[in-house]
Amino acid sequence: MIGRKNIGRASPLLLVLITLGFFFATYNLLTLVLQYTGSSSGDGSELSYDPITRMPNEARKLGKSSPKYHVALTATDAPYSQWQCRIMYYWYKKMKDMPGSDMGKFTRVLHSGKPDNLMNEIPTFVVDPLPEGLDRGYIVLNRPWAFVQWLEKATIEEDYVLMAEPDHIFANPLPNLAHGDNPAGFPFFYIKPTEHEKIIRKFYPEEKGPVTDVDPIGNSPVIIKKALLEDISPTWVNVSLRMKDDPETDKAFGWVLEMYAYAVASALHGVRHILRKDFMLQPPWDLEVGKRFIIHYTYGCDYNMKGELTYGKIGEWRFDKRSYLSGPPPRNLSLPPPGVPESVVRLVKMVNEATANIPGWDSVKNA
Ligand SMILES: *[C@@H]1O[C@H](CO)[C@@H](O)[C@H](O)[C@H]1NC(C)=O
Ligand SMILES: *[C@@H]1O[C@H](CO)[C@@H](O)[C@H](O)[C@H]1NC(C)=O
């Protein structure tokens, strides 16, 4: 019979296909399991492979290990803050639903006390700035106070919060790096609590524990349980104001005072952060994006046409957010010359992609 003959002929091929299929299925499952256990053991968490479903991805979906986090971007209505927020939000939208992302909803926490012209473009919650004069002209002191108000008044679905800043660009889908009550933070090389023991002790008394309890971080980027942030935020406001009021502390910490204030406030609540170097990269110092999650473009990138860094000296080619204090950068910025690190090229390409696709990019100039 023809049918039989065909089956007979097809069977060796079929066998090979079945074997291959079985091999790949096993291989894929193994890879998944390895990735899963790998990522859990890598940062010391207690994640476990579900013995009943035997499906690590199922376990993830149930939200046992990686519940979603809310992206909270603190910002002002200044044009300088606005254009960065628009780029930030553009990349949030692109990354949100990609595999590996645990992003939930997004809120720009606008601490200017009144709505601005981006209310329809970016989900925004308006909070008050500190009462007149209390910020001592140091605008970032408004951040902790913004979190206190937002957490108290807003309805937030997610159990975790990512504290983000306007000059952050999501370069890879960001999972929830926190584990249970351990938030995740980025270790900044210039935040060194142990080198400022005398000052830290003014706010973190000896009976609380060693100075090494104070993590070398700022409040952003941090992914933290919402309930913990609700506890820490009022203390963070208090510690920032007291630090600002103490001339010795103000002088020693300068523009990173509010970062130290968060580090101290969280230590006062007994909260220790998982330090994730891969949370963020900072061009031009970090040369490649790789698997890191957030590009932080706080440093100017200056190069000559040979592709050599001329840091501190205005380069023939440059990208520096501070060149655009009063309005957005134009669309289609020129790409850096050959030889410039991949991280810088990527940054400019990502800025260009966002500005090319955000409707009315050039029209929003003033708040
Ligand atoms: C901070 O907290 C301390 C102790 O609870 C309190 O005495 C102080 O008045 C607070 N300071 C500010 C600026 O809120
Ligand atoms: C962007 O600028 C380059 C020159 O730097 C030009 O060749 C290109 O056509 C421009 N692209 C758009 C979309 O304007």
TrEMBL record:
One of its GO terms (cellular component) is membrane. The keyword Transferase applies. Residues 69-362 form the Hydroxyproline O-arabinosyltransferase-like domain. Pfam families: HPAT. GO terms for molecular function: glycosyltransferase activity. It is found in: Membrane. The chain crosses the membrane at residues 12-30. Keywords: Glycosyltransferase, Membrane, Transferase, Transmembrane, Transmembrane helix. This is Hydroxyproline O-arabinosyltransferase-like domain-containing protein.
